[in-house]
Specification:
By secondary structure, the protein is an alpha+beta fold. Helices cover 22% and strands 31% of the residues. The longest helix is centred in the first third of the chain and has 29 residues.
């Protein structure tokens, strides 16, 4: 009889230890401390592409709706594009991309780029066509010199931009 009592006591002690340790673990994993204070950090600008298609033209402009200055570039692809032209002299073309030469401040938009489309050739081909617009933007980084030149993102052949533009 004494052995049974010892086994019951041991089982009871182990069960109590298990319940106690479960409660401690639950308290540890559910405890939290709310953060106090804070500061806003804006790492990237946000841009929106605005496109408008009328007749045989597609007009593209980029709008900066973020809180930091950005630089932007645009590429327009399609089978039936006859010409891509800038409306104003704010754009420079290098390869497949058009680079906006000015810093795009918050709330500003670029001047227009217009892609001319050969609609009759598309209709003669007998199928629908797509005009694909790719735009990229990057937060403005300065080189730290007195001139405060803009640092080009990797892979961008961006024209030199100064803060005064």
């Amino acid at each position: 009889m004494k052995k049974i009592m010892n086994k019951r006591t041991i089982i009871f002690v182990l069960l109590a230890a298990l319940i106690f340790s479960t409660g401690v673990a639950y308290a540890y994993f559910t405890d939290y401390e709310q953060a106090k204070g804070g500061a806003a950090i804006y790492l990237n600008g946000q841009t929106i592409i605005e496109e408008e298609a009328k007749n045989d033209q597609k007009t593209v402009r980029i709008y900066n709706n973020g809180k930091t200055d950005v630089i932007a570039r645009v590429a327009i692809y399609g089978d039936f594009i006859t010409e891509t032209a800038k409306v104003e002299s704010d754009w420079d073309r290098d390869g497949e991309f058009w680079y906006y030469r000015k810093i795009l401040h918050p709330g500003e938009s670029t001047s227009d780029i217009v892609a001319n489309i050969d609609v009759t050739a598309a209709e003669a081909a007998g199928h629908d066509f797509e005009i694909i617009v790719v735009h990229e933007s990057s937060r403005v980084l300065y080189d730290g010199t007195e001139a405060n030149n803009v640092v080009k993102p990797n892979g961008w052949t961006y024209p030199d931009i100064s803060v005064g533009m």
